[in-house]
Amino acid sequence: ERGFDHAEIEPRWQRTWDEEGVFRIPDDAEDPEYVLAMFPYTSGELHMGHVRNYTITDAYARFERMRGEEVLHPMGWDSFGLPAENAANERDTNPRDWTMDCIDSMTEQFESMGFGYDWEREITTCEPEYYRWNQWLFKRFREEGLVERQAAELNWCPSCETVLADEQVEEGPGGAEICWRCDTPIDHREMDQWFLTITDYAEELLEALDGLEGWPNNVREMQRNWIGRQEGASVAFEIPGYGDVDIFTTRLDTIYGATFFSLAPGHPVAQEIAEDNDAVAEYIREAEGADEDELDVTSGVFTGEYAVNPATGEEIPVYVADYVLTDVGTGALYAVPAHDERDHEFAEAHDIDIVQVVEPTEDTVEHSSTSHADADASADADADPEDVDVQEVAYPEDGRLVDSGEFDGLTSEEAREQFVEEFDGEHRTEYNLRDWGISRQRYWGTPIPMIHCEECGHVEVPDEDLPVELPEFVQTTGNPLDAAEEWKSVECPSCGGPAERETDTMDTFVDSSWYFLRFCSPDLDSAPFDAGRASDWMPVDRYVGGIEHAVMHLLYARFFTKVLDDIDLVEGVREPFANLTNQGMVLGEDGNKMSKSGDNGVSPTEIVDEYGADTARLFIMEAAQPEKDFAWSPEGVQSAHQFLQNLYGLAADLAESDRDADADVDDSIAAYVDRETDAAAARATEEFEDFRFNHALQAVRDLVSLLRRYHERPDADPAVVERGVRTVVKLLGPVAPHVGEEVWSLLDGEGLLAEAEWPDATLPEDYDVASRLVEDTREDVRDIVETVGIEDPERITLAVAPEWKTRAHELARESDADNLIGDLMGHDEIRS
Ligand code: ANZ
Ligand code: ZN
């Protein structure tokens, strides 16, 4: 058998695809299948994680194209960000040149992998043609009231006299936070920053998660937690001399147990008290400089004031305490040490009374984490309220009210409901989600299109002056934009007087919040994207990328999409990504995360040089289903390579053999092989649709071994073998496209394989029983995974497999389809 020379065939087919425009999608396409991988940060180097990510979308895009779909599969560059600035400083170049070099080398690496992108739609976020639309959108958001200027706490280096991004803060001796540049311990300073008020969309962002059925549950859950809705109430407590102060609570049922009252250091009443109270003033000053991460729950100061509990009429002492956050709820709370762990700790430290007002019931004790509820301990044995000693530890669960005046005996839930009216409160929903601060004090990002004028305040840069382009890069200690005196000084667009440009740039997550829309019309210079086309082409049908983006990028992109729909820039697109897949990690041979710095890294370039892109692609896709991690394996790579060589050998053999030579064909075996071919096609198709490429490839491999064995028989029908191999090549085409084209042309296939028609995927009738079994089993596995919560389906499959086999054999005897099922099961999911 002969082999192919990957170094010769791969570049040749890449050129052909390019010349034939195989991956181009015309603007007048109606509703193409939109397949997208999260675009890469321009680090300059492609790693195996990228290769995996992009192989998945490429294979799927090729699959859909062969099925006759028009496919939009674009690529671009997430090219703003701090690493470019750091690299430029280290190498004495500038961020732009460094970034452009990275893009060049990454483009080359992408092409060498055979990824089929519509390069005419390439977008680069650091180009003014792109980022001007960030600026334009910022203004549209501002018109909608979605941009606010708020104070935010920032890292400040007193020696460099500059704000530091979080990434520029390093850990020094003794865990101190120090400046990355000069090692000076950093301060925190409150400074005004630009915010996008994503909280206005909190409710919709949360609610709509239920409808995102094409998303993994864990990502939806992470977003739910991040948004963090809390149902509660607000009630006013009077602080004589200072008026009514609203609190927010999720536990209104505990109001009779409130023994003190706490204000956040930033609460207006705390500030007011501080005016005549030095101790409080001093405490607030210290709290503001402190690091948020080292929160001390017991830190606080008594103000000398008292708040009136509307339930009891009692006066409880008012503290200013660090654990109360200024921008959460109302920034004020009543504290119930008996039923809240933080309040309990604070009360112990400050010698405050602890009064129990909720008692466990049988039900709650059983489920309570504070009691030792063994699975089989009976409820009544443990339900003794005496077991709960709130003087020792807080009892934070629901239960029945005690010591609550006329309301004793109510359940917590009933009390929460009744007390809202009883104490003149209001139902109130709070979210953990905060507004999105987009100001970054650095150079390599989109300039925020604002101007500060002494006379007029914050003035927008007029649309006709967009883009505000970045000035030349200079190396300085602080933000290079602050040093760009000439760039900074402008005429105020409103009064014509001297004014200064905003020198902050935008968080690069702004760039990635709408880039998927730009792909619809990447060169448009009158709007960020063509509204009609975007409305037709969106949402992205298949989005693939890392789980590390579960919250920020994916939430911001959802937020942008909703706003853009609300301001009629698109129509009827409320969600950007219909289906989402988070690919797992590629681990080193040692099972640790593959990294460049560790010594377990495998460079894609080396693998491509040695074995070719198809081998790498095939190995990666066979190793595991997309969501799962897998370890790099030289044997696996070898095996993938050998498989491709064998396939090529078989095809070369066929191409040379005398096709109508023999008449000694055994028709029944030929019919069997034919049927196997159809079955493999049907099965692979289903698995491709399900994103289970490893299963699809297993079916292909099994078919190839059958064909090879059959081909060696004297009674083989060469036409059947050839039909089989043609089918194999088509099924393999999305994953190993170069070898695919080569074999396709050996067999005189018509046109390019990349544009050939996907094989007919109807399962032969007598395969019904077996295929349903396979389906059922998969359902079982999914059910088990869901219920048990085990993350390793492979192990579960192993566990249920014997049972599956028994059932399969029973059914096989009944249906007389024994050998067919046996064969199908030979390539069951048990392997790996
Ligand atoms: C009284 C109370 C009694 C509360 C009790 C809890 C338990 P979670 O933890 O999600 O339930 N809270 C309100 N505003 C706050 C702020 N600005 N900073 C820090 N904490 C604040 O959050 C809701 C609870 O957090 C609220 O309910 C409030 O304490 C506290 F047995 O009110 B609770
Ligand atoms: Zn002005």
UniProtKB/TrEMBL annotation:
Family statement: Belongs to the class-I aminoacyl-tRNA synthetase family.
Pfam families linked to this entry: Anticodon_1, tRNA-synt_1, tRNA-synt_1_2
NCBIfam families from the UniProt entry: leuS_bact (TIGR00396)
Region (Disordered): 361-386
Signal peptide start and end residues: none
This protein's name: Leucine--tRNA ligase
Catalytic activity: tRNA(Leu) + L-leucine + ATP = L-leucyl-tRNA(Leu) + AMP + diphosphate
Domain Leucyl-tRNA synthetase editing: 224-422
Keywords: Aminoacyl-tRNA synthetase, ATP-binding, Cytoplasm, Ligase, Nucleotide-binding, Protein biosynthesis
GO BP term, pick one: leucyl-tRNA aminoacylation
GO molecular function: aminoacyl-tRNA deacylase activity; ATP binding; leucine-tRNA ligase activity
Highest taxon of the lineage: Archaea
Segments forming domain Aminoacyl-tRNA synthetase class Ia: 432-632
EC identifiers of the protein: 6.1.1.4
GO terms under cellular component: cytoplasm
Listed Acidic residues bias regions: 377-386
SUPFAM superfamilies reported in the protein's UniProt record: Anticodon-binding domain of a subclass of class I aminoacyl-tRNA synthetases, Nucleotidylyl transferase, ValRS/IleRS/LeuRS editing domain
Organism placement in taxonomy: Archaea, Methanobacteriati, Methanobacteriota, Stenosarchaea group, Halobacteria
PROSITE patterns referenced in this protein's UniProt entry, alphabetically: AA_TRNA_LIGASE_I
Keyword Electron transport: no
Enzyme class: ligase
Domain Methionyl/Valyl/Leucyl/Isoleucyl-tRNA synthetase anticodon-binding: 674-784
